[in-house]
Structure formats: structure tokens, C-alpha cells
Amino acid sequence: MIIKNEHEDISESVNVVREYPPHPHIIRRKSTRAFSEKPVEPEKLRSILEAARWAPSSSNMQPWRFIVATKEQPENYERLLGLVVEQNKIWAAKAPVLILTAAKLTHDAGERPNKFALHDVGLASANMTFQATSLGLAVHQMGGFNAEEARTVLNIPKDFEPVAMIALGYGDTADFLPQYLRERELAPRARKNLSELAFDGVWENPWSLAQDRTINIKTITTNN
Amino acid sequence: MIIKNEHEDISESVNVVREYPPHPHIIRRKSTRAFSEKPVEPEKLRSILEAARWAPSSSNMQPWRFIVATKEQPENYERLLGLVVEQNKIWAAKAPVLILTAAKLTHDAGERPNKFALHDVGLASANMTFQATSLGLAVHQMGGFNAEEARTVLNIPKDFEPVAMIALGYGDTADFLPQYLRERELAPRARKNLSELAFDGVWENPWSLAQDRTINIKTITTNN
Lengths: 224, 224
Fold this sequence. Notes:
Two copies of one chain form a homodimer. The first copy, chain A, has 224 residues and is α+β, with helices and mostly antiparallel strands.
């Protein structure tokens, strides 16, 4: 029944953005749990970090930092993986690259707090994700890691905050995942309707362009 | 002299990412101050918000909200513009669309804080920016607006936080800007070196792939 409704949605909804659909690298992006063990080429990894570097930030403070570990450096990799919660390790341990993002909480000059620090790390991480997707790679960001332990184990100074652990690699078939993760991996992606998210001029005044029949992700992508 | 050094940098640095340069929509993106008054097509605007909608978020909470105003709705537009600091109004007032982003600070169920709220709004705003760039539009995010007044004037509830004001529109020549803004508009974009931003395995252990001669934005883009 759910599936039937979904397909009904598709036929009606795709019109809405047919003319200018969201970019394929946005629509195809998925927080996969099905990583291949294939290593990430250093040039691609470099390019992904370079993309992060060119994100915008408040007063161009660039509050983002990245601790990178690949399986070619087992000690570094195991140190980052050791911070990940057990239920995420099941799939994250296959990813060939782990990256911890951190935010500088203060202005470069003085101790004044930068209230955009986490927001701007988000901007940079989205750039990384976009670049990775454009190179055929997949990214899965996790809040599920021990941030306090990260601070100690990785020597993160007090004016920085560990933000997210990113698993990066090529995608693989979901066949190797345990049943309960395979189901999640293959489930359609879901989002709130735009009418819940966007408003005309003031709060909760429904956005005139946000019709409820918004695009269904199934219409323009495959499962990966 | 600065220009000379810059050009020296170019010839040496472009090798580093020649094979996989950052995506043009990341490199060409710029927080322009030179907006055209040309309206943004509703289909494009819809597509930009749709791109935000498909960003990833912690536990898929989608903490992002958007208050949108175009010049076709002058009362809404003036209300948002009225929140912008004077020095930004000079250029922002030409942009045909303003969007205020807001973050839901708590989990959907209960009052528990969502510590990723601002970060995830950043992810969504980067998706918007990327989509806008892919459609030939420019985005300029601002912290320079009165957040407390925004809360009152726009009826933003206490569990949400106004985050950033976004000016959106087509780019224009910098000729119409006052001299001091034109200079900023035409200045090369600058970023920290990757060696300051990325580390191998632990804090401040220089990333093996982050050579100091990183890509210079001038090499693969024009001034817009």
C-alpha cells in the first residue's frame, strides 16, 4: 500500500520540477552503508578536500578542519574507527577513508565566539560530499562517534569542536550487509514536504511555490 | 608584485589537481555583491529549494526552514531587507530574492537539543548554493542581519534560530558598484592552504596530500 502511494506520487509530482530538476549530484547523493573496500585514489581525495576549501564562510574565517585517515595508514585509520559507535562500525569499517570534521569555535583574532562555526563546517562538508559524488564516490556523515574521546585521542584543542565523522569510499551492492541494514539501504529516501520547510515572507505562511506533491527521489535515480 | 607571485603560483599549483579539479559549480561559485535586477524564474527558485530539501541531516531531522521573499511580493521583500545591516543593503537590495534560513534547535520528538542543527542548515544551504550556481545564479549568504528583530518581525518560534540571510539572483557586471565594493568584487578569492586545514590521523600532523602549492582560483574561472 505504501509502495502504491509512492508510485502514484511519482507520476503526479515529477512535473513540478521537470524543467529544472535538482542537479544529479544532489539527487543521486545518498548516505550509503554499502561501501566497497576499493581504495580512493589520492588525486580524488585531494580534490574532495580542495572542494571543501573553497566553501564560503562568515568573514571568510574558514573554520573547518579535517583529520583524514586511509586504510593505507592502519594506525591512523584504527584510531578514527575506534571513535565510531558500534552500530556504525558494522558498515563504516569497510570504508577506505574516514575523515573527522572539526569547527574552530572562535574568531582567528581573539576569543570572540564564531556563531557560524558549525554552520560553515556544514557548508564545507556539503562541498566535499558534492565533489565526492561527482567523482563516483559516496559519503556517509555520522554524529555517532565519541566526540569527547576524539578530543583526547586526536589532541584537538579546546577552541575547536569535533563535529562529524565522515565515511568515504566507492559504493557497493547491499548484498554484503546484514538483513536489517540491507533493508534500510534499499528503502526509498524520505523528506518532509517543502510546504513544511519553506514559507512566504513570514513564519508558517505556506510558500506559494511549495505544492505538496514534491519530487519523489525514486523518479530520477537508482538505488545507489 | 603580488600579482607576479600569484601567477608563479598558478603555473606550479595547477598540476596538483589537474586530474580531478573541483567541480566547476564549486569553483565558479562566488559570494557576489553585483546582482542583476532580473527576476529569478519561479521554476528555478523551486528547484533551488528542492535541492536544499534533499540534503542529509542527523537522524534525517531536516532542521532547515526557509523564509522566502521575492520582489514580486514587495511587502515580504521589504520586511526581509529591513533586517539586513546597512552596509550589506547597498548591494543586497538589488537581489530579486532574499531567503532567511532558520534552524530547529530541538529534536522533533521532545525538547532534547539537536547539536547538529546549524551544521545541517549549512548542508542544506550549500545544496541551494550549488543548485543556484548550476542554473547560472549567484548566492551571497550573510550573517549581517538583525537576528533578534527577525525573530519578532517574522514570528519565529523560540525553538528555532534565524541563521543566515541569503541574497539570490543573476550576477551582473561590477560597474554599478561603488568603488570600494567593486574592488572587493574583483579581488581574487583567497583561502587558507590545505596544509592548515587538513591533518594526517591526528591534530596538526600535516596531511601528506596537502602540499602548500594548492590550486589558485584564478586558473580555472573568470571573475564572476
